[in-house]
Write a structure and sequence with these properties.
Helix content: 25-40%
CATH topology: Trna Endonuclease, Chain: A, domain 1
Number of strands: 4
Number of domains: 1
Strand order of the largest sheet: 1-2-3-4
Shape: globular
CATH architecture: 3-Layer(aba) Sandwich
Radius of gyration: 12 Å
Mean pLDDT: 96
Length: 78
């Protein structure tokens, strides 16, 4: 399955769970996850990868950085 199809699936799932989902295309910080999902009591950053896809060192750093700031993160593989 292509990453774009996995991403569309995850967006649909998150919206069904009550999240407002934004696809991050270009940000001031390289390596930031693909999606940010927001609802009243939580914010989730989601990096989308295929089954064989690997995180870059910068992506690993950004996920750790977001966790340290109190945000929930995930690597979603569909």
């Amino acid at each position: 399955m292509k990453e774009s199809a996995i991403q569309a699936k995850r967006i649909k799932q998150l919206e069904a769970e009550g999240y407002y989902v934004i696809k991050l295309i270009k940000t001031n910080k390289n390596g930031i996850p693909d999606l940010v999902a927001i609802r009243k009591d939580s914010v989730l950053f989601s990096e989308i990868k295929t089954e064989k896809g690997k995180l870059s060192k910068l992506q690993e750093y950004r996920l750790k950085e977001l966790n340290e700031h109190g945000f929930e993160t995930e690597v979603y593989r569909g």
